[in-house]
């Protein structure tokens, strides 16, 4: 399937997805349509705010002052408050555009478990950056005779200077049956 810009989203699909009835979920095991491999979301833009970074640092127990204090960040050689290492996952959540890949696949959120997350870092993300991010479905596979299906999604986060900051990879587990 060619990369998709998300335009196939319809109100009917949304209604069926909210009821957990779209694209065969619940009709048996191993039902996610693999033809969606290669689907891409529309790029979304997220403005990174210092307050978001401070809140994230506090929530994750980050103790370094560079993640909460602009003066400490500058004294450490940063141009602004840097994003804590796993903040890119939050950017991905903030950037969700309609339809999400789960919606495109017809997967009700009630059947979803977050299985895995990995990051590959290239350039820091800072307060004040505008990050562009999009999602691509890179694999769909099943285990346990289709009782569990796995959706592998990849994201790339690029800053306003067109510099790659981070690549994210996530695996979502869908419980069937």
List keywords for this structure.
single chain; 177 residues; alpha+beta; Thiol Ester Dehydrase, Chain A; 5-stranded antiparallel β-sheet; 5 helices; 5 strands; elongated; disordered N terminus
Annotation field: number of helices: 5
Beta fraction: 25-35%
What is the CA–CA distance across the termini? Answer: 27 Å
Share of helix, binned: 10-25%
Question: How many β strands by DSSP?
Answer: 5
- Please list the strands of the largest sheet in the order they lie side by side: 1-3-4-5-2
How is the CATH topology named?
A: Thiol Ester Dehydrase, Chain A
Radius of gyration: 18 Å
Any overview of this molecule?
The chain has about 180 residues and is α+β, with helices and mostly antiparallel strands. Helices cover about 20% and strands about 30% of the residues. It has 5 helices and 5 strands, in the order αβααααββββ. The longest helix is centred in the first third of the chain and has 10 residues, at about 50-60. The two termini are about 25 Å apart. Residues about 1-30 have low confidence and may be disordered.
Short description:
The chain has 177 residues and is of the alpha+beta class. It has five helices and five strands; from the N terminus they run H-E-H-H-H-H-E-E-E-E.
Write the SSE topology.
Layout: H1 11-18, E1 44-47, H2 50-59, H3 70-75, H4 87-94, H5 101-105, E2 112-121, E3 130-143, E4 148-158, E5 164-175
Antiparallel strand pairs: 1-3, 2-5, 3-4, 4-5
